[in-house]
Structures are given as structure tokens and as C-alpha cells.
Design brief:
11 helices, single chain, 268 residues, 13 strands, five-stranded parallel beta sheet, alpha/beta, six-stranded mixed beta sheet
Length: 268
């Protein structure tokens, strides 16, 4: 039996399994595990692989799930995430979906357990092991890169009006640690703190990263935040998918982060 992040046991599913994914990064992972033919529904934020997800029925967003649309699909399995989906959605799904699989990666290495969990449940053990090998290779490579990188204090912004950042108790923050980047603010009890402009001015920011998601930061926002931290040259846009998505994208994401950090270190 495979055990998910909620402690639930799941028996191995057969090829007749009908899967709905409420997690964008896991939708992509399921395709990379060779399960595209068994996927029947996804959220509007599940956008990879682009040509394939278009064929799936949309069942709302990650927070505003259309339960009636899911019920009409009659899935045998639904996959949710503790951070991305509401507890109410999980409880509602449990009333009519036979198997609701809960995921909750909190650090890069948790991807190994995620590959194993889904590989075991859906009989894709070989594909899951290959992803694990590729992931370990990426980790070894970024560890070598890390040795030459300076420690930096990073403000990673995910929202505007109000400004929202990530605390150190997040997958994003632990991913940034792979290149010696420490997220601000420190000692924060809220995982995604809201900050005022004055809060930002007081932070000892070495580099501010504006994520492409969930808020779509653009070039026009660089000057705005640059004025707050007092150093426009230390504000950069970053691909949020590469930093925050777990699953198979995390492999490419680690390589992206290594190159991004190296270029940031080389910048004047």
C-alpha cells in the first residue's frame, strides 16, 4: 500500500483508473509518468503539456473547484495538494470519489517521495525511478554550483496589492536554499506574509525576485519595487513555475535556478 501526505493508504490502481488532477504541477507529472490516457480532468491552471491538457475537461480553478463537473466525470481517483486546494474541497471529493490522493511536498527532496507515491499507485514504478535518477543528478549538479555562490538575502514576491512574500517554511524557500539564498522576512509565523512598503524598506534585501506566478510580474514592476529596496539593479524577474512547481518540472527547475543564480552572482 502507498501512503499519501494525509496518511491514507492507497492500493495499486489498474489501467481502468480515471484520474482528475487539481494540481498543475502534478498534472504535468502524470503525463511524464505515462498516465495521460487515464487523465480525464484538470484545473484551468494545469497548462503543461500544452498540447495534451487541452484535451482534458476543465473543472474550475485550484481554489474554486467545480464539484459538479468532477462528479459528472465519475473519476476513480482525484489528486489534491494541501497548499493549493481547500480542505473543504478535499472533504467534498471524499463523498463521491473513491480515492482522493493528498500530496504535500515541502522541500526539493520531497519530490522523490512524490514520484514513488504516484508510481506505486498507478503502476509506473519504472518511470518514477527514472525521474528519481534524473532528479538526483540535478541535485548533485546544483550542489557543485552552490560551492561557488555567495550567500544572499532574498525577498521573493508572489503578489502585488498587497505585496506578498514567502516565508522560510515553504517549498520555494527551501528550493532557493540550494543556491545559498535565504528568504526574507526571517522568523515569520505566516507562510505567505503580507508586507507593506515600509516593511520592505526595512528588510536587508540583497536581491528581490519578482515571480511570474501567481501574480504575473512584468518589467514595468521592476522600478516600483526597486524604489522600495533602494536598488533597482537588484530586482529581477524569475520564472515562478521553475521555482515553485514540484514533480517532473522540478528537475528542469533545479538546472534553471543554478544558471539564474550564477548569472545573478556575475551581475555588477
Amino acid at each position: 500500500m502507498a501512503v499519501d501526505a494525509f496518511g491514507q493508504e492507497h492500493a495499486r490502481a489498474g489501467t481502468e483508473a480515471r484520474i482528475v488532477s487539481l494540481v498543475p504541477s502534478i498534472t504535468e507529472l502524470l503525463f511524464d509518468l505515462g498516465l495521460g490516457a487515464q487523465l480525464i480532468g484538470r484545473t484551468g491552471f494545469c497548462v503543461h503539456p500544452k498540447s495534451e491538457v487541452r484535451k482534458l475537461t476543465k473543472i474550475g480553478g485550484t481554489k474554486d473547484v467545480n464539484l459538479d463537473a468532477i462528479r459528472a466525470l465519475a473519476p476513480s481517483h482525484a489528486i489534491v495538494n494541501i497548499d493549493e486546494n481547500n480542505r473543504e474541497t478535499f472533504e467534498a471529493l471524499n463523498t463521491f470519489v473513491p480515492h482522493v490522493i493528498v500530496t504535500h511536498p515541502n522541500a526539493p527532496r520531497d519530490n522523490l517521495d512524490l514520484y514513488c507515491l504516484l508510481g506505486d499507485i498507478f503502476d509506473r514504478v519504472g518511470a518514477a525511478r527514472q525521474l528519481a535518477r534524473d532528479f538526483e543528478t540535478a541535485l548533485a549538479s546544483i550542489a557543485r554550483t552552490r560551492e561557488s555562490l555567495p550567500t544572499k538575502r532574498v525577498l521573493y514576491l508572489i503578489w502585488r496589492k498587497p505585496w506578498m512574500a514567502v516565508s522560510q517554511d515553504t517549498y520555494i524557500s527551501r528550493t532557493l536554499e540550494l543556491v545559498n539564498w535565504e528568504t526574507l522576512p526571517r522568523d515569520c509565523s505566516v507562510r505567505y506574509p503580507t508586507l507593506s512598503g515600509e516593511d520592505i524598506r526595512k528588510l536587508p534585501v540583497d536581491i528581490c525576485l519578482l515571480s511570474s506566478e501567481p501574480y504575473a510580474f512584468r518589467d514595468k514592476h521592476l522600478d516600483e519595487i526597486g524604489r522600495l529596496i533602494g536598488a533597482r539593479e537588484n530586482v529581477r524577474l524569475i520564472d515562478g513555475e521553475m521555482i515553485s512547481w514540484y514533480g517532473s518540472r522540478a528537475i528542469a527547475g533545479i538546472d534553471y535556478l543554478a544558471r539564474f543564480a550564477a548569472s545573478s552572482a556575475a551581475a555588477p
